[in-house]
Automatic annotation (TrEMBL):
Annotated ABC transporter domain residues: 6-241, 253-500
SUPFAM superfamilies: P-loop containing nucleoside triphosphate hydrolases (SSF52540)
Name of the protein in question: Sugar ABC transporter ATP-binding protein
GO molecular function: ATP binding
A Pfam family matched in the record: ABC_tran
Keywords linked to the UniProt accession: ATP-binding, Nucleotide-binding, Repeat, Transport
PANTHER family in the record: CARBOHYDRATE TRANSPORT ATP-BINDING PROTEIN MG119-RELATED (PTHR43790), GALACTOFURANOSE TRANSPORTER ATP-BINDING PROTEIN YTFR (PTHR43790:SF9)
Amino acid sequence: MNDVLLECDDIVKVFPGVRALDGVGLRLTAGSVHALLGENGAGKSTLIKVITGVHAPDGGRLLQAGRELRLHSPLDAAHAGIGVVHQERNLIPGFSVAENITLQNPPSRRGLVDREAMTAPARRCLAELGLDIDPHRPVRELSVAQQQLVEIAKALHTESRVLLLDEPTASLSPQEAERLFDVVRRLTARGTCVVFVSHKLEEVFTICDTVTVLRDGRSVLESAPLAEYTQDDVVTLMVGRAHAVTAMPPRPVDTSAMPALSLTGVSTASGHRDISLDVRPGEIVGLYGLVGAGRSELVKAVLGLDRITGGHVRVHGKRAKIGSPRQALHQYGIGYLTENRKEEGVFLEQPILRNITVTVWQKLAKALGYISSRRERDVAQDLVERLGIRISGLAQNAGELSGGNQQKVSLSKWLAADTRLLVVDEPTVGVDVRTKHAFHELIWELARGGLPILLISSDLAEMVTLADRVVVMADHRIRGEVDNDHDYDRMSGRIIRIIHDHDDAVVPAEGASS
């Protein structure tokens, strides 16, 4: 099929001081998967908001079937057959799965919402995704991955002819992502156009047919066949220059040093059993596993957010019983860069200055609790320059920054506190190619300076790039450990084999002693 379902013609969108979109063009055809690519700040989110009725364009037109389409709200977009699944979930936690799925068009009887009639359409949408979830179950009880799939089921219920998926696999395991791709293929087979927004280029090249690339608010490649381009071509278009990913420089680790963090036979209320691992000064230890393996939950138990039921934890050689992240920071020097930066990592409605210095107010305070604004600004400005955070000023709210810069602000507050052990959870989810590489270099340099780092990542390439050792988890247990030789093909094969075989034996890197 090649019928044009929706067209953006020379779209312009201006915010105070910023021309977010500057003559963007896009053509979406029936039965295609269209990649919308660009770095953070390139204009992708703004364009999505224009297409879905959140923002009215300041110039140009939206065309549907050749006629101008004027959208005044997301509801107008839904009525026009345009659906969207945002990177940040948009579900009502207290509602059931069925209520969330049918929320935009709930069945009714005699003028009242018919909750029983919600079940059948909800089951149908869940079945299309291969999800075995009770439609009556409250959404708050679901995992992050399950909630993301419910978002997609919600979009399926509206029977959108144009469906925008914004970083849809960010919280999904490889198996769940493949299930999503199967759904996308079924949707396009019946004439839907799926717009796929992702920083994972390997996924883009797996599922997409056509591509539009935005850079600095302009379309530098518009609705072109993806098969005519390589990944390097696309990256060059996104960043405006060749962006070769180079190997990190040598960084020796003293394996005889006392561990900064040592877990011995740890069990938790979440179901972990007999977890033992060490992280030494200057070492990056990776925790890898599929969604649901229990990696983030393990870290949260160590930080006092869940109950440890057995074994013991040592920090810098001393037994530690941690009751809260605050105690972890101030008593043990542990910083935690969370995967959920928008809800836990930064205060979106607060200035960057406050976000960076919140961990050191106690240290900066003088008599009677007075905090010197000059000292506070000096600390924040130093970290902004050190991390290369792109801001208009320290008074700017963190919520106005791109995802990559928000993550840097989140990291900076832990560096301000002179953290002696850093836990980094999914550091580059939803971050563009260039920012991801810069973040990798930053983490590497911190480790080279002696900082011990426990890294959790679902990005296998990221894990192979950064970790000195990879500890593989499945079903809340450690299933194996691999010394990293930074050979992606060899490492990925070994790690995936451990996950699927649940091999409890330690697997040494190629050439390492058994």
